[in-house]
Amino acid sequence: MNEQEHISPIEQYVIDYVRDLRKAKNLSQEDIGNIIGKSKSFIGNIESLNNRAKYNLTHINLLADHFNLSPKDFLPEKVILKRDKKKKTN
Q1: Separation CA 10–CA 88 (nearest Å)
Q2: pTM, whole model, 2 decimals?
Q3: I want to staple 9 with a disulfide (CB 3.0 to 4.6 A). Which of 1, 27, 71, 80 is the partner?
């Protein structure tokens, strides 16, 4: 998947998790928007590779409640770091 510079790896993980959950439950972007009190276009912006929109902790909490999950289920088990491709010197 193409990673954008303005979306951090952990933000992309959450976006991917919610999109996969949405698809697994056969829900539309509008359905997810209704759960978190946002528009279909807001969810479309989050899932778009050309937009800076992201889920926040309140959104994650609302989604977790709706799907009977823990907010921590939306996060990776281990830290995701964006590594600089240039070799660092001391």
Answers
A1: 22
A2: 0.84
A3: 80
